[in-house]
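Dear colleagues,

As part of the handover before I leave the project, I'm documenting each prediction I ran so the next person doesn't have to rerun anything. This entry is a single chain, and its sequence is reproduced below.
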Amino acid sequence: MAIPQFSYGSDDSGLVWGYLLQEGAPAVPIGAQAALDWMAAPQPGQFVWLHFNLSNAASERWLRVHGGLSEEFYDALHQGSRSTRIEIADDALIAVVNDVLHNFQIDSADISTLWVHVTPRGVFSARRKPLASIERLRQAVGQGDTLRSPVDLLVHLLRDQAEVLVHIVREAVARVDTSEDQLLSGRLTRRREDLGTLRRVLVRLRRLLAPEPAAVFRLLQRPPAWIALEDRQDLRQATEEFDVVLSDLTALQERIKLLQEEIAARVNEDNNRSLFLLTIVTVMALPINIVAGLMGMNVGGVPLGQHPHGFWIVLGLIGVFSVAVAWVLLRLQRQR
């Protein structure tokens, strides 16, 4: 019986999609063999973008045999630390970018890594799970967006990543606004734990994405000679826009923190009020317990034991004393 061969959404070489790009012209989809033919005889003014799925074991084999990539790129694939960074290796750019998964849900921090190798001849990108930003970039290229250079493609990716993050921040802001309105109106239905979950997701996103602007700015200090001045300016602008989104993310975290503190303060206030009422009830019941304990002693000489109205007299005294204690406690509470 034949065993089915799993492709993980890619072809036999692990290629998910490939494009041949040229400045001022729409992208042309190409396969692995067409990419090999072009790489054997590259044309001036053109470059390729090949995107691979690392879940397919054939991807790394194909890249090692035909890609001609820097060894640092393969080291980055197998490193345990996946902090966001952009490095220069053998006159090529190696980017390790963290991104949210395709169809990301804000209730869970579904984040994975994208590895990108950029040279003057082309861009090689690889991932293990479908990511939101790279999918937006593929749709833009497929719909006719023109890219003048491999660095321009990287800039487009960073801007798509910022747009995805902006969408996440907007959704989080809508949830926080709802919780804040409910808190101010006194009918908070979203629990404090839900805000804590949202805050943890945002903290993880910022922790993984925050190093990205600094990495790009370090690259711009000493960029490779083949990066055009216009590409450098676009890269700087995209990084500044991404930094603004990160600032909004940080401000939203602080807002959630303040909202959690306000909810905690109200919960503590309600608990204190409940404890005070419980204390009043306990103190009011204290005379009844004391008198009941004393009158219930099985000894002689109990006061009013033989009086025909002794029960009502004791009950009246207990009532008067309880009312007096309650009045004192309520007056003290009113003064506070």
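Residues 229-295 form the longest helix (67 residues). Confidence is low (pLDDT under 50) at residues 1-8.

All the best with the project,
I.
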